[in-house]
């Protein structure tokens, strides 16, 4: 396939770079020492691993967003369109740490709840470069935003469960 000069050139480059970033310095760690089939891992250890991974994912998503912003946006005003356009924006989340601490540790389960679905794939495949760059900007903006929330809430949950809110 000849991609030189094609509208897919930037998309393929971004995909390649994001895959390289995700694989950079990653070595799987076994949950159990020596890969034992039957072992017990403490909840503290599981939280420690989850917090490390979520922090790592957030850092990578922030790096990808910053790199994309530096290379492709150049005053195009993508941020004004991306502010509230994440498909996860409709999910009720606390605005700050204090609000997050007010949430019940065991929230009720809601059956038949409808969750937002990401519908951005066609925008990433558009032939128009401006639209495609805007879609990538939005995707990376939302990934950074959501990974930051997950990282923070996971740390808060660890604090509540492991340290009994003594953090």
UniProtKB/TrEMBL annotation:
Chief localization class? secreted
The entry's Zn(2+)-binding residues are 55, 151
Instruction: Show which residues constitute the signal peptide.
Output: 1-28
The source's superkingdom equals Eukaryota
Q: Which GO terms describe its cellular component?
A: extracellular space
One Gene Ontology term of the molecular function aspect: metal ion binding
* InterPro entries reported in the protein's UniProt record: 4_helix_cytokine-like_core, Somatotropin/Prolactin, Somatotropin_CS
| Subunit details | Interacts with PRLR.
Name listed for the protein in its UniProt record: Prolactin
Q: What is the lineage of its organism?
A: Eukaryota, Metazoa, Chordata, Craniata, Vertebrata
Q: Which gene encodes it?
A: PRL
């Amino acid at each position: 396939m000849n991609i030189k000069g094609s509208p897919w050139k930037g998309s393929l480059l971004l995909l390649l770079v994001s895959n390289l970033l995700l694989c950079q310095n990653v070595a799987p760690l076994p949950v159990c020492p020596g890969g034992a089939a039957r072992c017990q891992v403490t909840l503290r250890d599981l939280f420690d691993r989850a917090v490390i991974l979520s922090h790592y994912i957030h850092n990578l998503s922030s790096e990808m967003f910053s790199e994309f912003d530096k290379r492709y946006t150049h005053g195009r005003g993508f941020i004004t369109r991306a502010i509230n356009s994440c498909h996860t924006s409709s999910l009720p989340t606390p605005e700050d740490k204090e609000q997050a601490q007010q949430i019940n540790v065991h929230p009720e389960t809601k059956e038949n709840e409808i969750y937002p679905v990401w519908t951005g794939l066609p925008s990433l495949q558009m032939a128009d470069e401006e639209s495609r760059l805007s879609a990538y900007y939005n995707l990376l903006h939302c990934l950074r935003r959501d990974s930051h929330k997950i990282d923070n809430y996971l740390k808060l949950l660890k604090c509540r469960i492991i340290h009994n809110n003594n953090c």
